[in-house]
Amino acid sequence: MRLSIAAKTALAALRGNLGRSLLTILGIVIGIVAIVLVVAIGQGAQSLILSQVESIGGNALVIRPGRQPTGAADIANTVYSDSLKDKDIIALSNPNNVPGLASIDPAVIVPGNVSYQNNIFRPLIFGWTADAMAEIFNIYPATGSYFTNDDIKQNAKVAIIGWHVKDQLFGESPAINQLVTVHQQKMRVVAVLPKTGQLSGFNVDDIVILPYTTAQKEILGIDYFQEVIAKAKPGADINQVAADVKATLREMHNITDPAKDDFFVLTQQDIVDRISTVTQVLTIFLVSIAAISLLVGGVGIMNIMLVSVTERIKEIGLRKAVGASQRDIMQQFLLEAVFLTFSGGLIGTIIAISISLLIVVVIRTQYNLDWPLTIPLGAIALGVGMAVSVGLLFGLYPARQAAKKDPIDALRHE
Amino acid sequence: MSSLIDARRLTKIYNVEGVATNALIEANFTIQPGEFVSIMGPSGSGKSTLLNLIGLLDRPTSGQYFFGGEDVADFSDQELTRLRNQKIGFIFQAFHLLPRATVMENVMLPLYYSSVSPREYHHRAQAVLEQIGMSHRLRHLPYQLSGGERQRVAIARALINEPSLVLADEPTGNLDSQNGKMVMDLIDELHEQGHTVIVITHETPTAEYAGRIIKLYDGRIVSDAPAEHTHQHYTK
Question: What is the ipTM of this complex?
Answer without folding.
Answer: 0.91
